[in-house]
Sequence to fold (42 residues):
Amino acid sequence: MTSRDPRLTPARPDLADSRLRGLVEAERFVDGQPRRLAAPSA
Fold:
């Protein structure tokens, strides 16, 4: 299996996105939720 960048892959040993089932090992899988992120800039 190809190594996945942990900064971009929503997976940890205890929790992962349900779309990654079968691709990563995790104790449980959950459906992700879209979020909006805003960062201030000067």
